[in-house]
Amino acid sequence: MYLVGNISITLSVNFVASQFFIACINIFEREPGVGILEGTAYQVYLIFLGITLLTNAVSALGNKWLPWIDTAAIFWTLIGMICLAVTILAIAKNGRHDAEYVFTHFEASSGWSDEVQNPSIQVSRAMVATIFINTFAGLLFLIPLVFVLPDIHGLLQLASGQPVPVIIKSAVGSSGGAFALLVPLLLLLVICGIDCTTATSRCVFAFARDGAIPQSRWWVKVNHRLDNIPLNAMMLSMVVGLALGLIFFGNTTAFNAFSGVGVICLTVAYASPIAINLFTGRKQVQQGRFYLGALGTISNVIAIGWTLLVITLFCMPASIPVTASTVNYAPVVFVFAVVVSGICYWAWGYENYVGPPTQDG
User: Fold this and answer.
1) Can you tell me the distance from the alpha carbon of 28 to that of 30, in angstroms, rounded to the nearest whole number?
2) Cut 0.70: pTM above it
3) So what's the pLDDT on residue 309?
């Protein structure tokens, strides 16, 4: 599930980046309501192809620079969000909603840790810090947008499915100014794609190293000329992602299910060891670096409950009544992934999978 989730999420991030790029371009209009880029399926896929190649190239050729890129992304995020928030609130060409609307109005319409030093401590700290940083950055981004939010029903009818460019253009009243404010978001999406690509390649490498993937000797090879990166594993994940992207030509609704199934698979992968640990009396965590005692049991129960909620939400249709264009294929894709994973384990993994190394460091 973890491998399927990583590949699906990487695919989704790069595809969303391509769709968001088209939406940003289309704030420049040939005539009112008509963007300069049609955004046909082949155009979306070609942009997706370019972004995928870019993220893989940066991850492969700039491996030693990735920590610097991620650190810069933190400051880029905060600076970009502050600039965006101040600008749209200051200009607000079409007016601002009051605080009551913003805060009370509702419309009814961990990563892989193989390369981390001392992962039992550092990964735990990173997971907790990420929650606080993303909460702060998310509120800093969303609250100003709600203050200048145009008609919600119009946003829901957007063919692109990308309301942020429209909201920002409505607030600043200028296509050029809106595009300038969107550049930081575009860059962040690319950086996110780079990080997802890097994580997925390490995930494929780790599974190959442990004998969980056929032809593992090939996928476990590292390229010493490129700072010892698992280049073969990276190319495998890239090819699988590009192949899955072809589904977009046939059925966009089915393709969009990969975003939901990525979240479901990763959530199940994270929750599985928690559930096993809880139902076996938490006997294996007493010597852990962050042993919480009774509070740990409560945390485990909350985590499992949250997992069940997330799975339910991501399996629900986007609207009712359910039609061929609104049905959610995520449950189907998830069940298919579970069945295929089970078959692969029975046919290959049972005899060849040896499990990850246990050293911490």
Assistant:
1) 7
2) yes
3) 93
Distance CA(263)–CA(338), nearest Å, equals 14
How do beta strands 29-31 and 34-35 pair? antiparallel
Tokens of 115: 């390369």
What tokens appear for 287 in the block? 């010597």
Mean pLDDT for all residues in the chain: 84
CA dist 259 and 264 (Å) reads 9
Tell me how far apart the alpha carbons of residues 269 and 47 are, in angstroms, rounded to a whole number.
31
Sequence ranges of the domains in the chain: 2-252
Tokens 């600076």 map to which residue?
Answer: 79
Under CATH, what is the fold of the domain 2-252?
Amino acid/polyamine transporter I (1.20.1740)
Q: Is residue 114 over pLDDT 70?
A: no
The string of pLDDT tens digits covering residues 145-168 is 889 988 888 887 787 788 999 999
- What is the per-residue burial (b if ≥16 Cβ within 10 Å, else e) of 272-297? eebeebbeeebeebeeeeeeeeeebe
What is the reported pLDDT for 109? 43
Q: How far is 126 from 284, CA to CA, in rounded Å?
A: 22
Alpha carbon of residue 220 to chain centroid:
25
Q: How far is CA 11 from the centre of its chain?
A: 9
